[in-house]
Amino acid sequence: MNAPSKQTPRAAIRAALDKQARALGFAEIAVTRPDAIAAAGARLRQWVGQGRHGEMAWMERRIDWRASPEGLWPEARSVIVLAEPYTPADTLGADPLAVLGQPERGAISVYAQGRDYHEVVKKRLKRLGRWLIERHGGEIKVFVDTAPVMEKPLAEAAGLGWQGKHTNLVSRRLGSWFFLGVIFTTLELTPDRPHDDHCGACRRCLDICPTAAFPAPYQLDARRCISYLTIELKGPIPRELRPLIGNRIFGCDDCLAVCPWNKFAVAANAAYAPREGAEAPLLAELAGLDDAAFRARFAGSGVKRTGRGRFLRNVMVAIGNSGDPGLTGVAEAATRDADPLVRGHAVWALSRLAGVARFRAAMRADPDLFVAEEWRLGLAEVSSGPPPSSGA
Ligand code: B12
Ligand code: SF4
Ligand code: SF4
Which of 54, 226, 267, 343 is the most buried (most CB within 10 A)? Predict the structure, then answer.
């Protein structure tokens, strides 16, 4: 057993902590102070003030805590930030964006193809936290994603990497494919120094974004981001953005995948290996999932979080963008779905695939105002000529 914390020099605790974190499977560990991200907190307020968080009202709710970790838990003295890679196995060979060229299939972003990272990272954070308390005392709180904590600025302040122009954390040792987890502790640990920005003149991530979601480098308007539109947004996807989504049915990887620092990416934790059928599922197959089948297929995966309705909404958008006449019947069948969100997007898909006669034949009165409006707009579009080509 090590000596208790009071007698243990800070540097020795840090060395032991780093060793234990790596032994538990984290790829990187760094430490900062709770009061290190005042500038990021101010930018968060500006971002929310501009409405760039869209309908993510939870970003507003506890904004004081999110902007100031020292207010979230005043007793905390140090923040430990950890990185867990989920690098796609083919990063150094095939292109993780290759599925975008297969319009009859759906693209589920790499981070959601394996087990739900919230569960995996949290379990490991708790193990590390327990170890820290047992060996060196103090109290801890662990966070991954869901708490009001700005994980990226904390990670940047701790020197784990820098927030790239796509706003995510990039590391010279890991590239872009990694999750973050955070442990607050009442222990005084030696902090690390912040990292320099190594984006330089590169703007690959900005230029590839299919929806032009970056109003400026280092700034994201979530309302245009496909990750927001396909995961966070609960209602209908704005009509003007649907064609730009292509076949991305859960999240988006484009801005991460093009980052040149990925040449240093390291292998993913085994928990994130893609599950059977998660890499490039057929849209027709997904469209046939009822609630029970959806739950069974995505049990333990992050995809389950959206629920069947939102997921099928995304599948219908991808079908509408497929340009595949073979999927017309699938869209038509979904215009009779019990969920109005699915029905409305199925109508849109049908308007993109069917000719005017078939569209008219499928039309029916719908008690839901949104779906009724989709029929009206769809008829206007299908009557005015062939659909514009997909933005995929
Ligand atoms: C809300 C959220 C989203 C939203 C908004 C994303 C965003 N960029 O904020 C949506 C739903 C769009 C989203 C998408 C994704 N997310 Co997300 N998300 C979050 C969450 C919960 C909060 C992020 C936040 O605080 N945003 C608010 C804005 C204001 O913060 P910010 O990006 O840090 O803003 C900074 C810049 O704008 C900068 N800035 C502004 N102006 C200027 C000007 C200059 C000159 C400079 C230098 C900087 C600058 O300062 C701000 C403060 O630092 C975090 C988890 C967490 N609790 O932290 C995960 C998190 C950021 N997401 C993550 C992931 C993996 C993703 C996706 C890759 C998933 C996917 N494949 O679809 C995409 C990536 C999209 C992208 N390009 O950001 C990971 C990122 C890991 C990493 N390596 O960084 C996190 C950390 C979750 C985790 N625990 O691992 N996400
Ligand atoms: S995740 Fe996709 S849509 Fe969102 S900012 Fe990156 S490239 Fe654009
Ligand atoms: S793609 Fe280029 S600009 Fe974007 S984060 Fe990576 S290095 Fe920075």
Answer: 226
